[in-house]
Amino acid sequence: MTRVRIDMFASLDGCTAGEPSPEHPMGADWNRLTEAHIATRTMRERVFGDTSGGGTTGIDDQYAAAQFAGVGAEIMGAGMFGLHANPDPDWKGWWGDRPPFGVPVYVLSNTAPRPPIPMEGSTTFHFRSGSIQRVLLEASDAAGGRDVRVGGGVGTARAFLRAGVVDHLHVAMAPVLLGSGPRLWYDLRRLEETYEVTSEVAESGTIHVTFAR
Amino acid sequence: MTRVRIDMFASLDGCTAGEPSPEHPMGADWNRLTEAHIATRTMRERVFGDTSGGGTTGIDDQYAAAQFAGVGAEIMGAGMFGLHANPDPDWKGWWGDRPPFGVPVYVLSNTAPRPPIPMEGSTTFHFRSGSIQRVLLEASDAAGGRDVRVGGGVGTARAFLRAGVVDHLHVAMAPVLLGSGPRLWYDLRRLEETYEVTSEVAESGTIHVTFAR
């Protein structure tokens, strides 16, 4: 059965990035949130093409591998593709020539319709302006029984959580305090009541919190 | 050597209580934050006088016991004693006839000086209006080599954290989202940089986060 899944990064104080700036579109603190994740063997191989066998292989790596396993389609906000950063209709986003998804990716967009962009490695970007429910239906069909992953950003993730359609939320909480930035937990009071919540601490100090149905 | 210690409760979204109301001075969500703590054997015996041997004995209980161990003096804000709730100078606060501290307790207060209140069980309440540093100096003397514990509330705890005088912060994070209420982590950006941060998940699902020097 298709599940809807989200993986997010947050600080101990619930920020998903620092304040963005022109030099640091993800915020200057992004590295502090994702450091342990980027250091995993899975991310080194899958995203950075490093097949030398380096990278951590502990609990962080188990979560890194799980985020790719069994995913049949991806949904992301316009900002995560890069639509806001570069409105050029021929630009293919900032995921490079061979994005790490390897599945159809549905980009939520309110701008004019644009044709799909097929990329290397089985990723195709589709642009959709319909409701969450409608895009989710299409992505579920495309996933063919595998899971649909909502990749972010935080506004998109929260919209899906508030809509009540998410079956599995994993948050990697880094043991740092950012003090400001987008808030993961804003407006999600009592979210836990329809989930089982479990947590696990990785060797890096990252706290992996999972909301599962 | 005297250390300065703090133990706090927070939700996953960093709230230390829900919004207070006349019926619920600690906020209606206080029970959700403290449920696992109240259920420990240590709290049942020490605070509720239940010597029947009931209560949980796992990781939550280890932290409950640790919060009392080696403490020689306590500091708390006026609200935690009850000064705001009841300005009657003869009222002895809402900790009952035999408060669980068993040591001198320094209550921060900007109101008129009042004499100390000796209670049953070695607790004496002292009222002080000086600076954090000055009260801390006096409490350290009184602790006689044992630790000084800053009991709260959250405003008092944050003031001591911002002043840079806290050696050990333990936060019991309950896996719930309150959505609003006083914020533990507000204005503490990069606090972790002068501490070692470790975390541990209890059987109850509570995440115990420790900042230690």
From TrEMBL, chains A, B:
Transmembrane segments: none
Domain Bacterial bifunctional deaminase-reductase C-terminal span(s) in chain numbering: 4-186
Pfam family, one: RibD_C
SUPFAM superfamilies for the chain: Dihydrofolate reductase-like
Top-rank taxon: Bacteria
PANTHER family found in the cross-reference section: BIFUNCTIONAL DEAMINASE-REDUCTASE DOMAIN PROTEIN, DIHYDROFOLATE REDUCTASE FAMILY PROTEIN (AFU_ORTHOLOGUE AFUA_8G06820)
Name used for this protein in its record: Dihydrofolate reductase family protein
Species name: Terrabacter carboxydivorans
Lineage of origin: Bacteria, Bacillati, Actinomycetota, Actinomycetes, Micrococcales
